[in-house]
Write a structure and sequence with these properties.
Chain lengths: ~375, ~280
C-alpha cells in the first residue's frame, strides 16, 4: 500500500530510480571484473565521478523538497552539505592516527604544526564512527533549527530569506578559513587513509562508497516522496502558494517550514558526508556562496517541484560542467549563468517538463487506439492510497 | 446598548493561555459570541478603524455594508489575527481573548474566513483544497503520518455536493471559474466547522443563479453557526439580511433591519455623497 502511494503515481521517479538501481549493480561489476581493454570497462575515474554526482543529486533533492514544495528558497544549502562533509572529514582524520607525517598518535598534522598541546574538545569522540555519524546529522540539523526558527518566526520569506542563507554560508566559509578554528584552515581536511578499517584508496572501498551514495539517494528520494504524498505535502504546497490562507485554515506555518527545513538540511549533510571520502578532501571552498547557487540551478534545470527532476538536473548540469571544465575552464561560469537565464525564460518546468510536454504532444499527434488519457486524474487522485 | 453588553461581559473568566483546542466549548451564556470593542487601527496615521464596536449573537446572520474603504476588511483582519489593533479588545465568547492568539490558533478555535479576493490553493485539486481545510489535527506530525478518517472523508463528499463541485473534484482548483472559486472557498470554510464564519464579498463575480444559491446556503448556515457577511450587492444583502450594520470611516454608522438602515438619513447621506 505504501509502495503504491510512493511509486505508482510517479512514473518519472520510477524510471530514474530504476536507472540508478541498475547502475548501482552494473558499475561496480564492470569496474572490478572487466579488463581495462574491454569496451564495457568502467574506469575508476568514472566510478568516482558518478559517486560524486549521486551525492550532488541527494543535495539537489534536499533543495527541491523545500524550494519546489514549500517555496523556501535556500541559497545556503551548500553550508549544510559542507558541515556534513567536515563531520565526516573529522572522523577520517582521526582514523589516520600515527600514520600522519609527524606520527603523533592523537594530534593531527596541522595541529602539530601550530604547536597545539592537546586535541581540542570539539575533536573528541570523532574517532568513533557512530559518534561522527550522529554529528553529521545533529550539527547541521541544529544549525538549521536555530537559523530557521529565527527566520521563520520573524516571517522572513522569499528573497530576504535567500539573502540571509547566502550570508550564513559566507560567514561559515570565512570562519573555516581561519587556522585557529582548528579545522585545517585553508587546506581543510585531507590525506585520508581508512574508513571503517578499509583502505580508502582501493577499488573495492570506492565501489562501496559509490553504492552507499546510491542507496542514500534512493532512501532520500523515497522519504521525500513519503513527505510530499502525505497530507503534510499538501500543506507545504499550500504554504508555497498562499501562505496566509494556510494560516487561516488553522496551520502553524512556521512549524511546517522549520520541520521541512531541518529535514532538508540533514539530507544535504548526509550528501556531504558521503561526498568527502570519495573526493578525498574537504576545505572551506565548499562553503562558497556560489556552490549553493549552483544547486538551485541544477534543480531549476531538472524541473522544480518534481523530486526526480532534481536528480535529472544534478546529473545533467554536472555532466556538462565536467565536460566544460576539462575543455575550457574559464567558460563554465558563463555557461552556468546562461543556462540559468535560458531555463528561467524558456523552460520554467525544466528538462522534466520539456520531456513530459514532448511526450504529451506525441501522444496527441498519434493517439493510441483506446488509451484512456486520464493520467492527470489518476495522478491527482487523493483517495488512491486508501 | 453597549453599556449593557459590557456589564454582561464583566463575568468573564481568566484568559486561557493555551491554544484553544478544536471543538472546545465557547462560552456564549450571555448571548453574543463575538465582542469587538473600542477597536482602533491606523495605517501610517490614517485611521482605518476608529473606536469600532460590534456584537454578534450566537447563531446570528449579520450583514455588514459600507462604502469602499469603510474598514470592513480591516475589521475581519483584526478578528482573525492578521492585523493587531492599536486599541480595543476582541473576545470570542466570554473568555477567549482573540488579541492574544495567532492566526492559526484563531482558525483552530473556530473562526473561519473567506477572503475578499478568492484565495484557494490553485495547484491542488478541489478535493485536496477541502481536505486541507478539514477540521482535523493540524500539527506537523499528524499531517505527516495520518490520513483523514472515514467520517472526515464523508464530510468532504457532503460538502462537494453542497458547493456543487462534485464532478470537478479531481480538477486543479486553479482551473475553476471565478464563481466556482468563491464556492470552493466557502466549502473550505464549511470543512473547518467554525462557530463563526466571516465572509468577505461572497457573491462578487457570480451569476444571478449562483448568487441565489449562495444566499440559500448562507441563510441555512445561520443558527448552527454565526455568519458575518460583508457585501456591496444590496439586492443580495436584502435577500438574506436580518440585522445590518453600516460601517463608515472606521466606525458603526447605523445598525438595524434593512428598512431601518436604508431610511436612516445618515446612511443615505453617506451613500449619496459617495456616488
Ligand atoms: N495594510 C494597509 N496599509 C495601509 N492602508 C491600508 C491597509 N489596509 C487597509 N488600508 C486602508 O484602510 C482603509 C480601510 O480598508 P478596508 O480594506 O478595510 O476597506 P473595505 O471596507 O473592506 O473596502 P472595500 O469595500 O473596498 O473592500 C482603506 O482606506 C485602505 O486603503
Ligand atoms: Mg474589503
Amino acid at each position: 500500500m505504501l509502495t503504491q502511494r510512493l511509486l505508482t503515481s510517479d512514473r518519472g521517479g520510477m524510471i530514474v530510480l530504476g536507472i540508478i538501481a541498475v547502475a548501482l549493480v552494473l558499475v561496480p561489476i564492470l569496474n572490478m571484473t572487466l579488463p581495462r581493454e574491454s569496451p564495457f570497462y568502467v574506469s575508476n575515474f568514472t566510478v568516482a565521478l558518478l559517486g560524486k554526482f549521486l551525492c550532488f543529486a541527494l543535495l539537489a533533492l534536499a533543495v527541491d523538497l523545500i524550494w519546489g514544495y514549500a517555496g523556501i528558497l535556500s541559497l545556503g544549502h551548500g553550508a549544510f552539505f559542507a558541515l556534513g562533509g567536515y563531520a565526516m572529514g573529522m572522523y577520517l582524520m582521526r582514523q589516520i592516527g600515527e600514520r600522519g607525517v609527524y606520527g603523533h598518535p592523537e594530534l593531527l598534522d596541522f595541529m602539530v604544526v601550530m604547536n597545539w598541546e592537546s586535541l581540542p574538545w570539539y575533536w573528541q569522540g570523532f574517532d568513533m564512527f557512530w559518534f561522527a555519524a550522529l554529528m553529521i546529522l545533529l550539527i547541521p540539523g541544529l544549525l538549521a533549527l536555530v537559523f530557521g526558527w529565527l527566520a521563520f518566526r520573524s516571517r522572513v520569506t522569499g528573497v530576504y530569506f535567500a539573502i540571509i542563507t547566502q550570508a550564513l554560508t559566507y560567514a561559515l566559509m570565512l570562519a573555516f578559513f581561519r587556522n585557529e578554528m582548528g579545522f585545517g584552515g585553508n587546506n581543510g581536511l585531507n590525506d585520508f587513509k581508512t574508513i571503517l578499517g578499509f583502505e580508502i584508496a582501493t577499488r573495492a572501498t570506492r565501489a562501496g562508497l559509490f553504492v552507499a551514495s546510491g542507496i542514500a539517494l534512493i532512501l532520500g528520494y523515497l522519504s521525500c516522496r513519503y513527505i510530499v504524498t502525505s497530507r503534510m505535502g499538501r500543506v507545504l504546497v499550500s504554504i508555497r502558494d498562499a501562505e496566509s490562507r494556510t494560516r487561516f485554515s488553522g496551520y502553524k506555518v512556521e512549524s511546517y517550514k522549520l520541520w521541512v527545513f531541518v529535514y532538508s538540511s540533514m539530507m544535504a549533510a548526509v550528501a556531504g558526508a558521503l561526498y568527502v571520502p570519495q573526493v578525498g578532501i574537504i576545505n572551506p571552498g565548499e562553503f562558497s556562496p556560489l556552490n549553493s547557487i549552483e544547486v538551485v540551478v541544477w534543480v531549476a534545470t531538472g524541473g522544480r517541484g518534481t523530486l526526480y527532476g532534481a536528480i535529472v538536473g544534478a546529473f545533467s548540469v554536472n555532466y556538462a560542467k565536467t565536460f566544460f571544465t576539462t575543455w575550457s575552464p574559464q567558460t563554465w561560469l558563463f555557461v552556468l549563468g546562461s543556462l540559468f537565464v535560458l531555463v528561467t525564460l524558456l523552460l520554467p518546468k525544466g528538462l522534466v517538463g520539456l520531456f513530459n510536454h514532448l511526450k504529451r504532444k506525441q501522444r496527441e499527434d498519434n493517439p493510441p487506439p483506446e488509451a484512456p488519457s486520464e493520467d492527470a486524474a489518476t495522478i491527482k487522485s487523493p483517495g488512491g492510497a486508501a | 446598548m453597549s453599556i449593557v453588553k459590557q456589564a454582561l461581559r464583566a463575568g468573564r473568566h481568566a484568559l486561557p493561555k493555551a491554544d484553544p483546542n478544536f471543538g472546545a466549548p465557547i462560552d456564549t451564556s450571555h448571548g453574543p459570541i463575538l465582542y469587538v470593542e473600542g477597536i482602533s487601527v491606523s495605517f501610517d496615521g490614517f485611521k482605518a478603524l476608529n473606536d469600532l464596536n460590534l456584537y454578534v449573537d450566537d447563531g446570528e446572520l449579520r450583514c455588514i455594508i459600507g462604502p469602499n474603504g469603510a474598514g470592513k476588511t480591516t475589521m475581519m483582519d483584526v478578528i482573525t489575527g492578521k492585523t493587531r489593533p492599536d486599541e480595543g479588545s476582541v473576545f470570542f465568547g466570554q473568555s477567549i481573548n482573540l488579541l492574544e492568539l495567532s492566526e492559526h490558533q484563531i482558525a483552530r478555535g473556530g473562526i473561519g474566513r473567506k477572503f475578499q479576493k478568492p484565495t484557494i490553493f490553485e495547484a491542488l485539486t478541489v478535493y485536496e483544497n477541502l481536505e486541507l481545510a478539514t477540521a482535523a489535527n493540524k500539527r506537523v506530525w499528524s499531517t505527516l503520518t495520518r490520513e483523514l478518517n472515514g467520517a472526515q472523508k464523508d464530510r468532504i463528499e457532503e460538502v462537494l455536493h453542497t458547493i456543487g463541485l462534485i464532478t470537478q473534484r479531481h480538477q486543479d482548483a486553479g482551473a475553476l471559474s471565478h464563481g466556482q472559486k468563491q464556492w470552493l472557498e466557502i466549502g473550505m470554510l464549511l470543512m473547518q466547522e467554525p462557530r463563526v464564519l466571516l465572509v468577505d464579498e461572497p457573491v462578487a463575480g457570480m451569476t444571478g443563479e449562483e448568487v441565489e444559491h449562495t444566499a440559500q446556503l448562507l441563510t441555512s448556515l445561520a443558527g448552527k453557526h454565526s455568519v458575518i457577511v460583508v457585501e456591496h450587492d444590496m439586492a443580495f444583502v436584502r435577500s438574506i439580511a436580518r440585522t445590518v450594520t453600516v460601517l463608515h470611516q472606521g466606525s458603526v454608522l447605523a445598525e438595524g433591519s434593512m428598512d431601518q438602515v436604508q431610511n436612516d438619513p445618515k446612511v443615505i447621506e453617506v451613500y449619496l455623497g459617495e456616488t
